[in-house]
Amino acid sequence: MNAYLGIDVGSISTKGVIIDNENHILASSYIWTQGNPMEAVKTLIHNLEKQIDKKKVHIIGVGTTGSARKLIGTMLNANIIKNEITAHAIGTLSLYPDVKTIFEIGGQDSKIILIEDGIVVDYAMNTLCAAGTGAFLSSQASRLGVKVEDFGRIALTSKKPTKIAARCTVFAESDLVHKAQMGYQKEDIIAGLCKSVVSNYLNNVGKGKKIKAPIIFQGGVSKNIGVKKAFEEEVGCEVIVDPNGHLMGALGVAILAKNSPIKTNFQFSITDNNFETKGIECNKCSNHCEIICVSRNKKLIDAWGNRCSNGDIMNR
Ligand code: SF4
Question: Where are the alpha helices (DSSP H) in the chain?
């Protein structure tokens, strides 16, 4: 059976799926990137490998997306490397063909994608402000002494969410400490945080956007039912969370790899190679571009970061 591997490498988490020709997920894995995307991808591929019968499943397409997509695409000899907006839209459309709005809140960034008739017509990303992301919620959870996985469940028990100023992490943290000292109930503070994540999102990435149903909410934070409920209260309609919402980027890029006319000769043993990245500075002009060099078993396989051909070390 022919199959396709899609990998979404973010700064916080790394996600991967193997799909068949009908886009069914045959294997999936979600792990923490831990600041080392290459090692994370090796672990991810081992996890995926264990879930399939390699005598029957042949990977003929590999796609990568996410912030380390170029690096990992080079490492795996991917036949397609795509940005997160396209990958998330394709993945979501494969399951929800009528989707009009995608809310996505990940570990360190968030995005909104607007779709008309199956085509992306507008989008926005927020990579600057950590308030309202998964990393922000995790740090607030540890400050409150609860597990972030329990946040949503606790939030739903609140009858009177506390107002938390969450326009940036510094304000949110000091406001949270202040509210806790004033004796507000923990569940009310947590529900207030969920609401503040939503208002931060809608006032930043969602600002000025025409949000229409059906709305799909995905990314790691979509697992928080308190944030889902807060979104529904704000937008006044159902916000759908798919059980595989955290895998949507990986699914989308696996579908793109399947549809690409170029195929790859991917082998699981590729992870046995010794990969290295090195940044070198081009000193040929005052721009001093940082050129990222990737080598496999000490042999240079790709390099990028040069702003002109004088710094092209691949074609010297
Ligand atoms: S790559 Fe081109 S623009 Fe960049 S430092 Fe080298 S010569 Fe200058």
Answer: 37-50, 69-76, 84-95, 134-144, 151-155, 169-181, 186-203, 225-235, 248-259
Q: Is 217 exposed, middle or buried, given 0-12, 13-18 or 19+ CB atoms closer than 10 A?
A: buried
Establish whether domains 2-90+250-272 and 97-241 are of one fold.
yes
- At 77-126, the pLDDT tens digits run 899 999 999 999 999 999 999 999 999 988 778 899 999 999 999 999 88
CA 85 to each of CA 82, 114, 250, 263: distance values in angstroms, whole numbers, following the listed order = 8, 10, 12, 23
Q: What is the pLDDT of residues 176-195, one digit of tens each?
A: 777 777 788 888 888 888 88
pTM for this predicted structure = 0.85
Residue 307, ligand 1, Cβ within 6 A: yes
Angle between helices 186-203 and 169-181 (to 10 degrees): 160
CB 122 within 8 A of CB 116: no
Q: Check pocket membership of 289 for ligand 1, CB cut-off 6 A.
A: yes
- Counting ligand 1 atoms within 8 A of each CB, the residue from 290, 308, 314 with the most, and so the one to mutate, is 308
290-296 and 299-304 strand pairing: antiparallel
Assigned architecture for domain 2-90+250-272 = 2-Layer Sandwich (3.30)
Strand 290-296 with 239-240, pairing: unpaired
DSSP at 163: P
- CATH number for region 97-241: 3.30.420.40
* Ligand 1 neighbour 300 (Cβ under 6 A): no
Q: Where are the domains of the chain?
A: 2-90+250-272, 97-241, 275-311
- Rounded Cα gap, residues 106 and 203, in angstroms: 17
